[in-house]
Structures are given as structure tokens and as C-alpha cells.
Write a structure and sequence with these properties.
The structure is a homotetramer. By secondary structure, the first copy, chain A, is an alpha/beta fold. The first copy, chain A, has two domains: 263 residues, Rossmann fold (3-Layer(aba) Sandwich), CATH 3.40.50.450; 176 residues, Rossmann fold. Chain A contains 13 helices and 19 strands. In chain A, the strands form five sheets. Chain A has a nine-stranded mixed β-sheet, sandwiched between helices. Chain A has a four-stranded parallel β-sheet with strand order 12-13-11-16, with helices on both faces. In chain A, helix 4 packs across helix 5 and helix 6 crosses helix 7. The longest helix of chain A is centred in the middle third of the chain and has 20 residues. The first copy, chain A, is globular, with a radius of gyration of 24 Å.
């Protein structure tokens, strides 16, 4: 059997739901009224027949995730609820849609009117920062979705878990929504454990945010589509630059520290990329298989080339070059050496020594892909995440993030979600489609065995 | 057990694949090279645990779809292949992406250079029309994705199946890609049956196209995201109109003859709709539950309202009014009476009789939502569909459409795909999210039992 | 001499400016600090040499407009100022940019903090409507430019001039900014005359708004570029529709009641229009010169055609058909018969009788072109108009609209601006460019002499 | 009198126009048919009354530009014409619109069908490069406007004037359209002089292209609006980044080597910039007036700041720092030191020493602003430039660029256009509007006299 899903997907609860949900849904099919989610509803971890077959043979239940959605009984009495929303880490399109979605859902669906925004990330959750929570009314958040960024501000880096729980208690918050990435959700997990230790009835629900789309068990993170759409737009510009000069080479760096989803997806969506370099696939620069010769071949054949490189690609090459030791930023993320600039210099040097006149354009859109307002599709998705987060919180669940997996909304225990990073499956159909849409050799590294087998 | 999937999902084949695929993929995990799809790979029809449980109990295999993707053996010798592409029916964003994707995949992946475009739909597949196929080279189709519409032209209505097969034979085409909706794919099925009857080795592969997103077993049809994104953009304009006048009411009609996907999704994505009327949910105009009173309540409370109505909604109301008999268009689709104009008049009459001064703006974006170029996300999706269609054709499969179901690309026998229309599940989470994002009552019709039970 | 400019362009003033401007500008060239506008600065009404030559010969001063901009002395003491902003009539992109621009300029440049928004147009300027002015702070209006429409709401139709002046007096407003079209500015003129009659020190400054771009002495009205850009986008869609069918004809109706600026400019910007029908140029349907035969010729030659028709075009044809008498809307504008639908029917009938199979798509984007947020270029222009309106008001000028003429910002007395409508010069270069970019015959009407000479 | 226009604006001609224009225009007002331009039509160099007054007093004719447009007689016999189009230098939005416009105008207006595209700039105009001209048919260029870049390719750097004229002669080209900037037009001037020397009848017409908008007597260069619109979009992203962190500072570098038009206009259009640094206005970093203290004041007051810096700003500061000697690129342009990175480092150092925690985001959109397809407004403008270039060429004029000045299309002799660069008038209304829309002090440099007076 597949061990990828050998984790505990049980969701914690604060206690037995005691109140009738204010949502006027039904349990009946065919009455044109949407139904409550029954508590046993679960979504398989893998929808392939081959995954399920051994379980059928053994008569065992395959691993699955709890389905997200509204329950007919809720844990909290709406009139007692005071909710807090916090956004942490780097920007991502759609944060404001998530904030607005939570505020509107609490107000209009659950009649909870005490909803507050924590300023500047976890920093605003400690008394000492003297940042007061903002009362978020439907009127106040009505139009924030037309803006990029986060209405609440954000920050990086951890805060004292004790102080944050003290703050929640002091302000009588009993729902906490944490919009953030890996680090943020680890923080949320710590908060929820401290809450448990103190035997408090405070629900902590995460909405996973990552421009890199690298959170486990989350098929697609919110804002990712906006980001890769903008990435594709930039790649079309870069293609125009490459194409506009004889032997024009455009090199575009896109975000993606440990995974190449953004680079790969933007490349595919643009339909113009000729090389896509991602962290998941090692590559050499030099013969026998290296990138530089492949690029030269392409230039001689087609007179232009568009190279897309993920921020975290080719770290082995940088290490070889001894580009100084690595440092960490305020969130503890490794500061990566700049592969884009490195590649640009290597390409320039290569063609100089080959005596081929080329015109190199280096483009780093950097923050632009992440600070735009969300596309309509992302905006819709954000609302659905927000609604499901609110349903989960009101039902008394805690310590989970809202997931999306094979087209279904799910509940994922935070510790499962942060147990490792999702990376692009280089055996799967996305990477195949990328390779198919480019001109790049199936292999650009030199080793008798693939690295993973060594 | 669930009988929704009681259909035969077996895929027809022209014969045993005889040639090694020119794609240089592998069968090994971990070599950084994408893998061929093994022939037994299948995707479950439903990924919910409750769906799978009875099969586990009984030790039976649950219903599933064949997985799409490249096979290591192909039926056709690439040098013998002559492929034809035809686009039929109404426009849809992304047709050009599909065309380009097929041309590039055949040329670059399978080294098939004889690819032709049939002009103006099935009409171009009959000799008598004197429309010559266009030789589609990679150079020719390179930039067509920046344009809306179809590079090949389209037409509605059936042609003689015999004449079309004669045409294929005469022009020595052995692959036929049909980009089109329900009617087109029924035509493709008829063609493939006639081919079978004549014992020809011609593969017919459909790429389902529907702006209404209503083809069965296709979770999301290509171009749908572009369409609802534009729909959402129009709804934001309409909201500005409603909001810009005291008691402003904007009514927007969106496409959707038998299903409300476009109206519902655009409404949710816009975040601004207050009422969403779709074919799947009956509604009354008059008391006790009718729409007009609900609208009045909203206007008195909030001073503006945005109403979204799908083309096919409220047909019962139109029928009651005796709005003349129904006619059919060239494709045999029923010509629907115009619910948008009808509603606008009823709303105007209601507020006149209520003596409430309102300002009504009626907006019908009509063809605009379907003739735009595709968004980056749709463009990517179209390429993936095109690649999978080419893989299916080269492998000798026939009589199928490429499906997408719970995030996986699949093969669906055409007769299964056209067996009935997909409609919006009013018990499911999309409709719930729509209701949650609007102000509309859970129920706007008067009947002791829901219509479906009567 | 040219009599087009035989009007009095003298600007009224409330009195002598008494206070030093809080703007820290200079009177010196070359100090890198922008200069105040000197009171005698004027802009010629026409920049062609031939216009100026007779004045040179006679040694006379040619007609000119007062230049807009900041003066070093202001009439109002900033601490005494209470400003009101009102938006009237139909929507137009950029209203919110103008509102924001006025609020920010008053607050940050002139330190005026008492700025109020009048709700729902002139209606909000009469006591009886019980609509309270909204205090507009920089914080409140900060992000309104990302939205279409008007933050203040609008309305059509006149109100009692006496009651409006009473309202201004009662609320101690001494600046009134009127954002609106022809009718609105006539209202503003009436208000300013009543103010003069009562010997009050209230400045009334208009910012001309018209989606039709038809206000005299205003080269380009704000929002017009956004509108024609969207118009061009719709025309590209329509072109895809026409092009996507054999003998496809797309007919698009665009706003423009008495002038064809929007239709002509969108057509030119799209680069795809084949016929452009505007109010300024009469056309026949029937032989010898009529439109229908020209359209048929095009269809037979090219198999598709895109027809753009302005709302107000071909009124003579409608009149001939006796399409019922004309009515007026709440603003007193004539309700035009629908030329778009009329044309669509005539085209259909023509090809039926010609026995040519055509596919006709009729598209009416209606309000969509006017309710979008402004483009960056329009946004910039709106800010410049707003700043100049504030400078004019603070200087004690009144009864003027801010104009833009041959690339300069000017002051135009309201009565000059509303003296007649601007129409497209069919002898000039815009219309020439339009004709050059289409396929349409130079002449599509039958008369031995042009209508204007009869 | 103003000496800014003390240049010879006389346009050279190849000879007397001998043929009737194929354009069916008229000379009559009021016949609804656009008129030919009469040869004496001219546009004043300045439309301000004060500019014209001394000429009126002295009875002299003020300086003026020849008006562009179609003439009723043409120099070339259309059947003899072979036209070449070349695009040089960096990309700019709209090049493809200009190319298409020239091709369509020659074909459809003047019935000239021999139109060729020169590949890769002037390089393609020398035999040795072995780059064949491409026959540009209307069909071929039909859809190129949906793409950024240049369909013909471009290159930098000069070629032998003699060889280029040889090439024109050998290929029997008698019209040459040069799309390019300052350097390109100097080249065009040299070509036209060599043509004159050889007594050839070849017309050379320039269409000025500059993303910096810095060509003299050209109010607005094509593509500039697209560029600043994208700049404004990036600035909104940057604002979201600045605003999303406590004490967030975003620094955006925009193109503009010797002029700040792009930075200033994008800043104004975005409505979000707090500091705008351009080459035309010197600034210090350090006290008493320096930028760093002004930035600190803003951060302490508002907690975020958006800084826009033009590529060529602050060169004096870089010089002081002795940042190495300056180099030139292939076109002979000075390679500027990178002010953006420099500024980012200085800002970081300043706040470190001030012990204020800030979050700095540096964004350099680089080529993105110039490789997009044109906006509808730019697209329209490009067509008008193209039409006027064709009219000028067919009339036998030569050695000119098509200008646009105070809203009129003009002819400018190339030597006048390249006599000096246009810079932003820091005394004028654009810079005033920019200052008004930001928070920046009127003065950020320390000198008793402005630099220009020293």
C-alpha cells in the first residue's frame, strides 16, 4: 500500500456541538435547498483505482480526509462569539477576499458581529506591540477585494505563544483565523496546543497561504492562479523581448523556493517557454547534458529562446560555485542565492566564448506576481475557503487548515499539513505537459543514476 | 449503490498498438522523467468515502474512468498520419488554444506534420461545400491563441454522416479531432460508428466545448473560466450601476440554457450578486414566496439590488404567460423565450404598482463572454486537453471525449458523455456558496412538495 | 474670420482674491519648483496658423480661453471653506477619481478639511429628500478609484434651484463642485445665477462628464478613453463572432446619442470595424448608395463583416419607418428608437431576400462601457481636472467648467460650454482615420447635394 | 520672443507631386467626406496667447509646423512603389500597430502592394547580413497587433549608410519607413542625405519611437501610454507591498534615462506614489534637505511609503560615490549606474542607523513595461501615425518624422527632432500634478541657487 497517506487525519474538537445552526439548510435531496454536511462525510486521499484496489481486496477503509462544510449543530452560541483574523508572511493575491469572506459569513450566515482584524500578523497578537484589533464590519470590508495585499497588514517571524494566548483570553476572542503559510500554521498549531493545555474553548482554524503552492494536501492554494496568470503575462512580454532581437534570450526568474509550481504552471500557461528550470529537477550547465549547450542548439536553430527559472532551482550549481554561506530571513526561511543573476552571467559567458552574438534580457518580476488583486476564479475560491473555515470554527473544530484536494474542500489537521512540503511530481502530468510545451531535453544532468537513487 | 455511474465506460480501440511511442518517457519513478500512463490506470467516478464503502464491503471494483495520457505504444505510424481538426457550434474561449495544442503536439511530440484544419465546422467536412482543409503548420498557429473565436470558423447543424466519412476517406485523414458541444459530439459518435461499419482505421476524438459547462462527466469545460471571469466583470459593472442610483436595480442575463453554472459561478466570483436565478431552481414571481416581494424587501432595506438570471431560468413562468410556442435553431436547440426582458418588465410593473421609484438597468452581455481570448488558466487547460486528445488518438482509441473529473484527465466514451446534460447540484457546495454570498431567500417558489417529487 | 469662437469666454469671479495661496509654488523659471499660473495666461481657441493669420494681419487679439491652474492668491480663507461635491446623470468611468482628487487636493494642498459628498445627485441638494451629505475624509475616499460608478450615487432630472441654494446656505457650503453633463451644468449655471442674485460668496465649478464626449470646448471628456477602450474590446469579440461563421455579420451598438465619438474611436482603436454608422453622417439602407448593398458586397468578397452603429445614428431612417413618436426620459433627453435592433432586422431581411445564408450576431454592451473603473490614463486625467477645479474654486472663480483643449487645461464659462453640443467633424482627421481603417464607401446616402447645403 | 522654436521647420521634398491621389476625399466642407490637407496648412508651435502676442504686435508669422495628412496630389505612381519598413532599437508597445497600419494604408488606400519588412533593424538593410526582406501582405499582418514586440525584429547600433542605400537601390525600394528612437532617426537622416547626394527618388519617413517619451516636438510618443499604464499597475502592486508591512517601503525603478516622463506619469496615474525622483530634478540624500530624512518623516507619520525612481535620476549622487566610470551600449547610449539598487541600499543603511525597523521591497519591472501589446488608445494613435507617415511618403516628402503636438499631427524635419532631447518641464502642470499627488517636499536638494543658474 501507498504510505504517502500514513498520517493521522483525525480532526480535534473543542467539545460536543450544542446549538442548532442558524443556517437554514436541509437534509433532504431534491428540495432545492442545499444540504448540511453529515459528520461522517469523507474524501478519499487518492482517487485512482489502483490506490483503492488493495483496500478493496483487504476489506479495509482507505485513508481519507474529513469533508468540509456546514454542520447542522454548532459548538458556539453565535451571540457569544468574538472572532479574530490574522494574516502573516508574504503577500498573496486573495488575502482580502478571505478576510471579507470570513467577515461576511460570520455576520450574515451565523449572525456573529464581533469580528476583529489583528494588525500586522502575529505581532498584533501580543500586548506589547500596542496594535489594537480593528472591528471589521461588512461595510468596512465591502470593497477591499479590489485591492491587492492585505487590509490587516502582515509581518514575518514568531511571537511568544504564551503572550498570544494571553492576548486572545484578555480580548475574549474564541475564534482565531490564521491566514498564512507553513510557518504561520506551525504557529497556529502551537497556539492551539497552548489553548488545549489551558483547557480553553478557543478554535484555531488556518487558511493556508503560499504563493509557491507547496503546502501538503492542498491541491491549489488561493492566489496561485492569479500569480501564475501574471507570471504567464510576464513570460509573454519576455517572449516578445527574445523574439524581437536576433539570437534574443530572455531569462525570467519566478518565485518558488523549494518547488517549481509557479514557474512550471506559468510556463505552460504562457505557451511560450522553451526551458523551465525548477528545484525538483537537477540540471548541469556543462557537457555532456548541460543546459548551456541545449540553449545554444536552440538559438542556432530558432534564433530566440525563453528561459524560465524558479528561485530555488539549481541550488547545487550555486553551492558548487561556493557562492558564500546561506543566511536566513526573519521567518527563518533560508535566503537563497540568486539563481537568475547567476544564470544570466553564465549564459553571457557561454555565448561570448562560443563567439555567438546574443542579446540577453533578464527579467525578475519579483513581488508583482503576488501583490495583485485576485482573479475572479481566485476570488471565488477564497470565498469558499473562508466559508468553510467559518463552518469549521463554528462547529467547534480546531487545529485544522481548510484543504482542497481533487476538487473537494476538506479538513486537514495542521500537523499533517505542515509535516512536509509539497513538491511538483516530476513523474506526473503537469510536468509532462510542461516538457511537452517546451523544447527542452528530457534530461539536462549528468549522472548514471538519478540523484534520488544515489 | 449509486446508479449515477451505471454506464459502460469502456473505450473503443481501432486495434492493437503496434509502434513504439516517439515520446521519450519512462516507466521508472524517481528518474525525473515523466512516466507513460499504464493501460490499466483508472480514476474513480466519485472520490467520496461513502461512494466507495459498499464496494469495499462487497469486494467489488467501483466504477471508474480510464486515465488519459501518453501510452508507450501507439497504433498509428506517425509518418502515415493525416489529422483533421474541426470546430463546431458556438464560440467558446480557448478553441484556438486547443487547435494550436493539437498541431504542436502532433508535430513536436509525434512528428506528425500532416495536420489540417476543416473550415466552418462539419460543413467543411462535406465535399459539396467546396471548403478546402487548411494545412496547419506550427508557424501558422503560433500566435492564434491571442485571438478569441476559432481560427477555423464554425457552423451549426448536422451534415450527412456518409458524406463526411467519404470526405475523410478521400482526403486520407486517419485522425479526426472534433471540438464541439453536445450536438457536435453526437455527430462525432455517428461518424465513428459509420467508420466502424466500414471497418476503417480512423480515430475520432472529441474535445468537449460548452460555454454552459453542462457536459456530463466533465467537471469544468474549457473556456468556462474565461467566461465566468468576464461574467463577474460585467456583474461588477452592473453593481456599480445599481449602486449608483437610489433604489437602483440591475438585471444581468448570462448564458445557460439548461444549467446555471455560468450565472452561479460568475455571481459567486463577483461577490456582488443579490439574487441568482437558474434553470435548476424554480421560482415564482408572486406571493407567498415570490421573487418580486423578496426584491422589494431588499430594495427597501439596502436601496440597491443586483439580479443575475440565467438564459434558461424561469421557463415555467414564460410558459404560464403563454409567450408563444417554442422554436428551434439550426442546431436543433430550442429557442428560449427571453427571460431577461420578461423579468425586467415584471420588475418595472411591480415597483410601479408599489409606488416605489426605482431605476432599472438591464444588461445582456450576450456573446461577449464567449468570444474573448482565453485566460492563462484556461489556456493551460486547453493545452492539456489537446495533448491528451492527441495521445488518445495516436494510441488508436476512438469514439471518446477527453474528460476532466475531480482533477484528473480521463477518457469518456462519447455515448456516456452525451447520455444526459450535467446540471448544477442544488444540494452541493457550489450552490450553497452562491446562496451564502447573496441575500436571496432559501426558497422562492410555492409548492408543498419540491417539483422533482411531484 | 472663423465665427465658431464668437462667444464670451470671460470668467466670473466672486471678488478679489485676498489670501496667499497655501501652495508653495514659485514665479521663477529654473528653480525646479512649479510655477503659479499668472492671471493673464490664456490658450488660443485654435492652434492652426490659418486661424491666427487674419488676427495678425489686423493686429487683433485672437479668441482664447483662460488657462487653468493654481493662482498665488486665493479668494477663500481655507479655514472658512465648506465644500460640497455632487455627481449627476449617467455613470462614467472616473467619477470616483474626480471625487477623490477634489477631496485630496482640498485637504492636502489647501488644508480644507470640511468636504462633503451630496448623495444621489441634485436630489441630495434639496432639504426635502432627507439625504444627508457625507463627510468625505482622505481615508474614506482613498480606495474608491478601484471601483466603477460613483461613490456618492447619482440621479437624473432637475430640482428647484431656489431649494438647492437654500440648502447650500443652510449647510454653509461655499464651494460646490458639480460633476455632470450638459443638463447638470445647465443646473449649475442656474444655481450660480441664483447665488449671484442673492449676492452670496459661493463658487460653483463644473467638471464636465459625458460618455459621449460631446461637450463643447472639451477635447476629451474624462472616462471617454476607458469607454472607447472597452468598446474596442467588445468589437474584438464581435469580430471573433463575425469571423467565426461563414458569412458572419456582427452588429454592435455603442452609446452616442447625438455624436459618434464613441463608436468612431472604438472602431478605430479596435482595428477591426468594417462599417461605422454615426449620427453625424446620414446613410440610406437602399440603392443606389445604401448600406445594405455595401454590406452584401463585403460579405461576398470577405465572408464576414463587423458593423458598428452609434445609438443616435440613422434617426432619419427610423423616422421614415414611423417608429412611433419620441418620448423623453427623466433628464429630458429624447428617448431614441433603437437603431441597433432596427438594423439587425433590416440586415436579416435583406439577406433573406438575397438568398444568402448569413449568421447575424447582435451585441449591445449597453452600460458596460460606462460603469468600469477608469484606465490609468483616465485616472491621471481625472486627477488633473479635479486639481484644476479646486484651484479655480479657491481663487474665487465661479460659473465655469474645467476644460481641456488642444492639450491644455482651461476655464470655460458654463454658458459657452452648454451653448451647443460638440459633434464629430466629418471633414477632420479622426473621421478620415476611421474611414481609412474600414471598408466602407465614402458615401452611403442618396442626394444630389449634401444635406447641410439643402 | 521665445527662442525654443528657432529652428528651420521646412520639409524636404523629392519633387513636384505629379499624380492624383487614389484617396477619394474632397475639398468641400459639409459634404460628409473628409478633406485633403492643403499644402499651406500649419500648426502653431505654441498655443498660448502670450507666445503669439509679440508676433501680432510685429505683424510677423509665428513659428509653426507643417500639418500632416493626405494631399490631393502624390509624387509616386502607386504601381511603381516598393516600400520597406524597418524597426530599430528597444521594444515599445505599438510597433506592430504601426507596421500593420503602414501595410494596410499602402495596400488599401494607395493600392501599393509591394511592401516589405526589413528584419532585425538596420542590420537587415545591409547585404552582408543576408537577412531577406519579408513581403508584408495585409493577411500576414492582420493579427500582429495582439502581440507585443516587433514582428520584424530589431537591433541596436549603426550600419554603413552607403551599404544601406546600396541595399535600397538594389532592392528597388523607394519608400523607407524607419520606426525608432533618436539614434534610429539620426541614421534615417544620414540615409536621406546620402540619397539626396546620389540624387535618388527615395523617401525616408520616420515614426519616432521612445519609451522615455523624450523626442523633441513629439508631445506623446506611441506606446508611452501603454508603458505608463503598466507602470501604474506595478506601482499599485508596490503600494500593496508597502502597505502590507509595518513601516513598509517599496522602491520601484522605472525606465527614463534622461527624462522622468514615465516615472512621473505612472506615479500620477497610480495615485499612490509618495516620492518621485526624476533626472530633471536634483536631490540630496542627506540633510539639510535630503530625501532620506523626508522618507523617515513619512514613515514615522504614515507607516508606509512608495518611492518611484527613474533610471536616470540622481546621477550626481552616483558620481559622488565614484561608482566606476561610465560605459556605452551598442547604440552608444551611456550605461547608467543602477540608481534603484543604490537607493535601496542607502535607505536600508539609513533606517538601520536610525534604529527604525522597516521592511524594504525593491521592484524593477524592467522590460515588462515596454514589451506588452498596446492599449486600445495607443493602438489608435499608432494607426494614425502610420497613416500620416504613408501620406507624407506618397506625397514625396522626405527626411521628416511624423509628430504630434498640442493634439495635431505634424511633419517635423528629422534634424529638428533630433536637435536635442525633450525633458519634463519642472515648471509646468504635469510636474505640479505629480507633486500635488505625492507627499514629497518641494525641494530635496541643498544649494542656494538652482543648479541651472550656477
Amino acid at each position: 500500500m501507498n504510505h504517502q497517506f500514513d498520517l493521522d487525519f483525525t480532526i480535534s474538537r473543542l467539545g460536543k456541538p450544542r446549538f442548532k445552526s442558524p443556517l437554514e439548510l436541509s437534509h433532504v435531496e431534491g428540495d432545492f435547498v442545499s444540504n448540511f454536511i453529515e459528520d461522517g462525510e469523507r474524501i478519499l486521499c487518492d482517487h485512482s483505482l489502483s490506490f483503492i484496489q488493495p483496500y478493496i481486496r483487504e476489506g479495509k477503509e482507505p485513508p481519507s480526509f474529513e469533508a468540509a462544510g456546514p454542520r447542522d449543530k454548532v459548538f458556539f452560541n453565535p451571540t457569544d462569539v468574538r472572532a479574530a483574523i490574522v494574516s502573516c508572511g508574504g503577500l498573496c493575491p486573495g488575502i482580502n477576499d478571505v478576510i471579507r469572506g470570513i467577515v461576511l459569513s460570520l455576520n450574515f450566515h451565523y449572525r456573529v458581529h464581533e469580528v476583529y482584524g489583528i494588525q500586522y500578523g502575529y505581532k498584533g497578537l501580543v500586548e506589547a506591540s500596542m496594535l489594537s484589533p480593528i472591528h471589521l464590519t461588512p461595510k468596512l470590508v465591502e470593497d477591499i477585494t479590489s485591492l491587492g495585499g492585505t487590509y490587516l497588514g502582515s509581518s514575518r517571524g514568531p511571537q511568544s505563544v504564551e503572550e498570544m494566548v494571553d492576548f486572545l483570553v484578555k480580548n475574549r476572542f474564541n475564534l482565531l483565523f490564521t491566514i498564512g503559510g507553513d510557518g504561520t500554521q506551525r504557529g497556529a498549531l502551537a497556539i492551539s496546543k497552548e489553548i488545549e493545555r489551558r483547557k480553553l474553548a478557543i478554535s484555531v482554524i488556518g487558511i493556508p497561504k503560499t504563493i509557491d503552492n507547496d503546502i501538503r494536501f492542498i491541491e491549489k492554494s488561493f492566489g496561485f492562479e492569479t500569480a501564475f496568470s501574471e507570471g504567464a503575462r510576464v513570460l509573454k512580454c519576455a517572449h516578445a523581448e527574445a523574439n524581437g532581437a536576433e539570437n534574443g534570450i530572455a531569462i525570467v526568474k519566478l518565485m518558488g523556493r523549494q518547488s517549481g509550481f509557479l514557474a512550471a504552471t506559468a510556463a505552460l500557461a504562457s505557451g511560450e517557454a522553451n526551458f523551465v528550470l525548477i528545484p525538483e529537477v537537477p540540471f548541469d550547465l556543462d557537457p555532456p547534458y548541460g543546459f548551456l549547450q541545449a540553449l545554444e542548439d536552440r538559438i542556432l536553430r530558432r534564433k530566440h529562446a525563453l528561459v524560465v527559472v524558479a528561485e530555488g532551482a539549481g541550488q547545487n550549481l550555486l553551492a558548487q560555485e561556493g557562492e558564500g554561506e546561506q543566511r536566513k530571513d526573519a521567518s527563518g526561511n533560508l535566503k537563497l542565492k540568486d539563481i537568475g543573476v547567476f544564470l544570466k552571467e553564465k549564459v553571457a559567458a557561454h555565448f561570448t566564448s562560443s563567439e555567438i552574438d546574443v542579446s540577453i534580457k533578464y527579467i525578475d518580476p519579483s513581488y508583482i506576481v503576488r501583490s495583485l488583486p485576485s482573479t475572479p476564479s481566485d476570488s471565488m475560491y477564497c470565498q469558499q475557503l473562508a466559508h468553510n473555515a467559518v463552518h469549521a470554527a463554528m462547529s467547534g473544530r480546531t487545529g485544522l487548515v481548510v484543504g482542497y484536494w481533487q476538487s473537494a474542500f476538506t479538513h486537514i489537521p495542521i500537523d499533517a499539513a505542515v509535516s512536509s512540503r509539497k513538491v511538483l511530481d516530476t513523474e506526473g502530468d503537469l510536468w509532462l505537459s510542461v516538457l511537452q510545451s517546451t523544447d527542452q531535453p528530457r534530461r539536462m544532468y549528468n549522472s548514471t543514476k538519478p540523484e534520488c537513487e544515489k
